[in-house]
């Protein structure tokens, strides 16, 4: 347990980096019931990622928020709701589990596994019954991830899990300038010059 203060976390994160293969950070913060990730959360995450954290998992807003990336390392800004009863915000009735696989000298394999509430209990998605919800969740996650850099999101698999990857950078545009034109000689009529 620590304050969300990068200065206080600097030494513990650096020690964890030296002593462990993978450093994960759980962050309890951000704006409740907001699809957008608040500025102070994005700033905090940027600072701890710069200290060497491999992945961040946010869990305060009670609604899913976007998935962003720092040098290929994932940030789940909010996993959504897990233990509180859903309210009038439809996304409080859903959340996601993060599934990550780390292998030495490779980018992590990352998935988001959405779930929905049945009554007051979270339940894994049923491929047949929940295919519409899985598509809706995928579209929502893609939309809310744009504000934190964007995420490529695969199609839901058998358990509803979706492979995530950093948004591919747009190809560089090559600008070709035409050669400078030679000045065009202009003729003036005698009527135009008399005015």
Given helix and strand content, the structural type is alpha+beta
What's the number of helices?
4
Largest sheet, described in full? Answer: 5 strands, antiparallel
Q: Mind telling me the C-alpha Rg? A: 25 Å
Q: Care to count the β-strands?
A: 9
What count of structural domains?
Answer: 1
Content of β-strand:
15-25%
Give the overall form: globular
Oligomer: single chain
List the secondary-structure elements in sequence, H or E. HEHEEEEEEHEEH
Low-confidence stretches: 170-180, 182-195
- Overall pLDDT, averaged? 83
- Termini separation: 84 Å
Helical content band? 10-25%
Structure description:
There is one protein chain. The chain has 195 residues and is of the alpha+beta class. The protein has one domain. Helices cover 24% and strands 24% of the residues. It has four helices and nine strands. The chain has helices at 6-19, 39-50, 131-145, 190-194, and strands at residues 24-27, 55-58, 67-70, 73-76, 94-101, 109-118, 121-124, 151-153, 162-166. Strands 5, 6, 7, 8 and 9 form a five-stranded antiparallel β-sheet that branches. A four-stranded mixed β-sheet has the order 1-2-4-3. Strand 6 and strand 7 (121-124) form a beta hairpin. The longest helix has 15 residues, at 131-145. Mean pLDDT is 83; it is low at 170-180 and 182-195.
